[in-house]
Design goal:
This protein is of the alpha/beta class and about 450 residues long. The protein has helices spanning about 20-30, 40-55, 70-80, 90-100, 115-125, 135-145, 185-195, 215-235, 265-285, 295-300, 335-340, 425-430, and strands at about 5-10, 15, 20, 35, 60-65, 85, 105-110, 130, 150-160, 160-165, 165-170, 180, 200-205, 245, 290-295, 305-315, 320-325, 345, 355-360, 370-375, 385-390, 410-415, 415-420. Helix 2 (about 40-55) packs parallel to helix 9, helix 5 runs parallel beside helix 6 (about 135-145) and helix 8 (about 215-235) runs parallel beside helix 9 (about 265-285). About 50% of the residues are buried. The structure holds pyridoxal-5'-phosphate. Pyridoxal-5'-phosphate (PLP) binds near residues 211, 294 and 297.
């Protein structure tokens, strides 16, 4: 758990989040349920925002990467904190617009934005579109012309840095589906193409080097490379970029293999990044660019927990013990997708010592439907409330109705009070779009 005091064990020995007893939450709202701690979300938004204010004269914008967790309430929180958001689909964009989000602070990403998504974006006057293909350059230019506007755009480039959790690699040339490589001249060619378009205003460049990164150095190296590229483009074309968007990717704590970062660690990381940008601007005689960062996971990940009720327990003597819960890969597919690790606890027995190692299984008809493997718990019993921590990012947003299970509700807790931000589904929601053709009736 983090330094914060909004996630702790209370004097009943229960897990408490946002001033509410997790066992109480499970009783009121049922399980499975996603619980989000508003104070933590706001603290994370603020630490990035204040760091840019303090060390970069407010010459930048924090943009919440909403693919981590998208629902109308989260855009409302971002808006009230005065930050921007990025969206990667028409659905996320529509959600932001319906939540009343200031469209000038919306960035749109995606390697294959669809015509109708771009139209929705431009009709709603969104601030910036991050271009990632020639086809898109043409489409955005044409839509902007139709609407009689000049659209602000960035180009996604590949600076040749790829980062993973605890390491990063520099590659001469990347084979990513995203962006244009600097090393083979592709980034420069598309830049020249965009500059030739009358209805586009190129503001600068974007890169996103990976996710769940703890190495500050990888962000610094990426920023330096993009600044070098900006200098080359200025020399070759006369165009000086006024924006550097360095993407997201800041890591969070999932289990004890990860560092527990404090707010000051996030501040220090961003401060080092800012210093690297300033140094490069000076070295190349460039203006200090408007700096955009796009944290997703680090804003929302540790703010969320999922509560389940323990059901069946299966002890395969001497081999493995499964504790099954009322959720699974339909609310959290991350173990099935990438063997992600989590910290699991019994919310109603949070101060009891762990006495056994178990695997937590979901209720889907898939052997791979696991939430966690070989985690330590007190001896679990049916009816216990299980909490899985750090499930705020890429859980609800990747949830599905697989096996026609319900996507759980999400609630927001703050100062001992809870509110729905996503209501629970019903059986009628499950069949809402089903149609039986006449001839089958
Ligand atoms: C996913 C993504 C982010 C956010 O990444 P996190 O690891 O969640 O911080 C930011 N920018 C872009 C373009 C992304 O695709």
């Amino acid at each position: 758990m983090n330094e914060r005091d909004t996630l702790k064990v209370n004097n009943k020995g229960h897990l408490e989040i946002g001033g509410m007893d997790a066992v109480e939450i499970a009783k009121i709202y049922g399980t499975p349920v996603y619980v989000f701690d508003e104070a933590h979300i706001r603290n994370m938004m603020r630490v990035y925002k204040h760091t840019i204010e303090k060390f970069y004269k407010s010459n930048g914008l924090v943009v919440y990467a909403s693919k981590a967790f998208s629902c109308m309430a989260v855009y409302a929180i971002a808006q009230s904190e005065g930050i921007g958001v990025d969206v990667v689909s028409g659905g996320e964009l529509y959600t932001a617009i319906k939540a009343g989000f200031d469209s000038s602070k919306i960035y749109m990403h995606g390697n294959n934005k669809l015509p109708h998504e771009l139209k929705l974006a431009i009709d709603n006057k969104i601030g910036t579109i991050v271009l990632d293909s020639y086809r898109e350059v043409d489409m955005v230019d044409e839509l902007a012309q139709q609407n009689g506007i000049i659209q602000n755009v960035l180009i996604r480039i590949n600076p040749g840095v790829e980062a993973h959790t605890h390491e990063f690699i520099q590659t001469a040339r990347t084979d990513s589906k995203f962006g244009f490589s600097v090393s083979d001249g592709a980034a420069q060619s598309i830049t020249e193409y965009v500059l030739s378009k009358k209805n586009l205003r190129l503001r600068g460049f974007h890169c996103h080097i990976g996710s769940q990164i703890f190495e500050t150095q990888s962000f610094i190296i990426a920023a330096r490379k993009v600044m070098d590229f900006i200098a080359i483009i200025k020399k070759e074309t006369g165009f000086e970029s006024d924006t550097l968007n360095i993407g997201g990717g800041f890591g969070i704590w999932y289990n004890d293999e990860d560092p527990k970062l404090k707010l000051s660690d996030y501040e220090n990381c961003l401060k080092s990044l800012i210093n690297a940008v300033k140094e490069k601007a000076q070295e190349h005689g460039l203006n200090e660019p408007f700096l955009v960062i796009e944290p997703g996971r680090s804003i929302i990940g540790e703010a969320g927990i999922t509560l389940y009720t323990v059901g069946a327990i299966k002890d395969i003597k001497g081999i493995k013990k499964y504790v099954a819960v009322d959720g699974g890969m339909f609310d959290n597919p991350r173990y099935a997708l990438y063997q992600s690790k989590y910290t699991v606890m019994l919310a109603n027995r949070a101060s009891e010592p762990c006495t056994e190692k178990v695997s937590v299984a979901g209720k889907c008809c898939e052997s791979g439907d696991l939430i966690a493997v070989d985690v330590s718990l007190p001896k679990a019993e049916s009816g216990d409330i299980m909490a899985v921590l750090s499930t705020g990012a890429y859980n609800y947003s990747m949830a599905s109705n697989y096996n026609r299970n319900f996507i759980p509700a999400a609630i927001l807790v703050k100062d001992g009070k809870a509110e729905y931000i996503v209501k629970p589904q019903t059986y009628d929601d499950i069949i809402r779009n089903d149609v039986v053709p006449e001839y089958l009736k």
